[in-house]
C-alpha cells in the first residue's frame, strides 16, 4: 500500500531529530537583480530620511546656515593663517567637508545605533534582502545626503560670495570619495562602541563638534601651531585641508593633498578593522541581559 504524500511524516521512537536552521540572506552578488534590490532599498532609505523634515533640515541645513552666518559676519575679512587670503574662500571648502562628515559620520553612527538597539537591524537581517545590499543602501543614502550638502554649499559660495568652483575638479571629486569612504568606516566603527540608544546622539555629536572646533572649521588655524599639530592626529582636520587644497586657494601648492588623503585612508582602514571585529546585529542591552542570566545560572549551579 502506498503512502499518501500529503500525509504528515512521523518520527520513529528514538530516531534522531532532524536539525532545523534559520537561513539568513547574506547572499552573493547575482548581477543586475541585486543592483535593483539596492536601488529599491536606497529609495526607501531616502524616503525615510526626507519624510522626517526636522531631521532632514537639521542635517542638510546646518552647513548652509553656518556658511551664511560666518560668511555674512566675517567672510570678506583676511587671515594671516591663509597668507592674507579671504576667509570666505576657506569657509566654503570647510563646510563642504562638514557636510560630508556630518552625513557619513554623525548621522550614520546615530542611525545604526538606534536601529540596532530597537531590534530593527536584527529583523532586517532575517528578511530576504541580502545583508550586503542592506548595508550598501545605508551607505549610499548617507552619500546622497552628503552630495546634496556639497551642491548647496558650492552654489551658495559661487553665487552668494563669488567663490570660484574647485580649481581641479578631479582632485575635488577624489577627495570627496576618499572622505566619504573614510568617515563612513569611522561612523560604522563608532556605532559599535556606543552601548545604548540613549547615548548615541550625545556621544557622537559631542565628539564630532569638539573635533570640528579643534580642527579649525570655525576659524583658520596657522600651520605649525600647537593646535594644528594636535588636530593633525584626527581625520577632521585633514578632510578640511584636502577639500581646501582642491580649490587652488594655496597659490603654488598642489590641488592633490596626498598626505591628507593618506591620513584619511588610514583612519578608514582602522574603522573597517574595528567595525569588522565589533559589529553586531543584536541589541547590546539584550545581549547583556542574556549574559547576566547565564552568569546567575552558573552561580546557582555552583552553589546550589
Set down the secondary structure blueprint.
Layout (H helix, E strand, L loop, with lengths): L31 H19 L2 H22 L3 E2 L5 E2 L1 H30 L2 H6 L5 H31 L7 H25 L6 H15 L11 H6 L3 H12 L11 H21 L5 H20 L1
Helix pairs in contact: 1-5, 2-3, 2-5, 3-5, 3-6, 3-7, 3-9, 6-9, 6-10, 9-10
Compact overview of the structure:
The chain is mainly α and 304 residues long. The protein has helices at 32-50, 53-74, 88-117, 120-125, 131-161, 169-193, 200-214, 226-231, 235-246, 258-278, 284-303; strands at 78-79, 85-86.
List the defining traits of the structure above.
single chain, 304 residues, mainly alpha, two-stranded antiparallel sheet, 2 strands, 68% helix, 1% strand
Please describe what this structure looks like.
The protein is an all-alpha fold and 304 residues long. The protein has helices at 32-50, 53-74, 88-117, 120-125, 131-161, 169-193, 200-214, 226-231, 235-246, 258-278, 284-303; strands spanning 78-79, 85-86. The chain has one domain (34-303). It has eleven helices and two strands; from the N terminus they run ααββααααααααα. Strands 1-2 form a two-stranded antiparallel sheet. A hairpin with a 5-residue loop joins strand 1 (78-79) and strand 2. Helix 1 packs across helix 5. The longest helix has 31 residues, at 131-161.
